[in-house]
Amino acid sequence: MPEKEINKIDKIKIARLIERIYGKNFDITLKIRYNIAKKIFKNNNIALYITLRSINLDKLYWILLNDDIEDIVLIPGKYIYITSRSGKRPINLMADEEVVDAFLRIARSKGIRLLKSNPSFRYGLALGPYRLRVSVDLPPVVPSPQIYVRVHRGVATLERLKSSGFMDDEQEAMIRRLIDEQRDLVISGVPGSGKTTLLQAIDLAIPGWMQRVYIDESDEFIDIPNYNQIKINNVNKVKEIFSSMNRNIDLFILSELQYPDHFEAAKIARGMGLWTLATLHARDIRLAVERLKGAGIDMEGLAIIQLEKKYEKGIKRQIKDIYVK
Q1: Which pLDDT belongs to residue 184?
Q2: Which CATH superfamily is domain 158-324 in?
């Protein structure tokens, strides 16, 4: 653990003081702790460790440092399961109740109520350069609380995604044309196909002066000083659409279209003439169109970017098709 390194430079007391610093909400608290630790110790890894330890998640430190790991599954009393570029496997580390409880405490700190009527939910967690998407299942859906963590390290640009094989030249050109036309976009694919990664890259390709509002899971999008960003961590998407009418905004990033209120929010935003971007779970274009039409979404002026995930000597993600109505 990097605590030994902290001791070497005789700053362990400072590290413990940092853990007692609080901001006006949980997300700002973590941001302040990380930035202060980074400034004092001049070491990103130590800053990450101190931030994780302050919320009792230091057990995940070495897992997060491994750039090959993309997903973490935590089921109390079982070995931690990870998904890496080479596939899925357990590691020699148990998921105890302490680390699961830490994620539940974070959920409460974010204002999420742990109720039988809300047994499955998600939230975002920003830890320095890392963006975690935390999905939680509670009884009666599962026998005991279970945590699923998607790890995003940094943010990919369209250029980086193209160079990695995620898209080709023609697909990149088409996406840039859709951005120039301010075409409403839905990124569709199976879980883990790279929907949020592509949405973040598209966001970076949109001019920074345009005022954008991120609704729900906004922690997955990095703060960029010269970008006009408003982040709202509120699952009541319809309410936030109406509230934002007074903000003179240019576009909405609605995150995932999953429940009826999500689709309703997209319909309202598009009806108001607001540029709308979102993601959707669907295996192919046909199913994506069926889901959207079934929810009453007008397909006119809408583009769907369909992603696919293959297991070929590891996990391969790429754009399969682009549908433009």
Answers
A1: 96
A2: P-loop containing nucleotide triphosphate hydrolases (3.40.50.300)
